[in-house]
């Protein structure tokens, strides 16, 4: 194998590995974002919900709304 061929193969392999790592990081970030959007405020502690400042009426009151 000539020297130029080895350099081209190493460069191509480096690009493929770099794109693969970037793709995996992007995929995992998307999964984390989906998880975080759904579970971050599951009990509505920080939401600007119209029922938040109504006091502690309980489940029966909220079921009637």
From TrEMBL:
Listed transmembrane segments: 6-24
Keyword annotations of the record: Membrane, Transmembrane, Transmembrane helix
Protein name (record): YtxH domain-containing protein
Organism: Kaistella yananensis
Organism lineage: Bacteria, Pseudomonadati, Bacteroidota, Flavobacteriia, Flavobacteriales
């Amino acid at each position: 194998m000539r020297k130029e061929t080895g350099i081209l193969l190493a460069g191509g392999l480096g690009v493929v590995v770099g794109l693969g790592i970037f793709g995996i990081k992007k995929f995992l970030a998307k999964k984390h974002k989906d998880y975080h959007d759904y579970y971050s405020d599951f009990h509505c502690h920080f939401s600007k919900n119209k029922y938040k400042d109504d006091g502690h009426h309980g489940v029966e009151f909220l079921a009637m709304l």
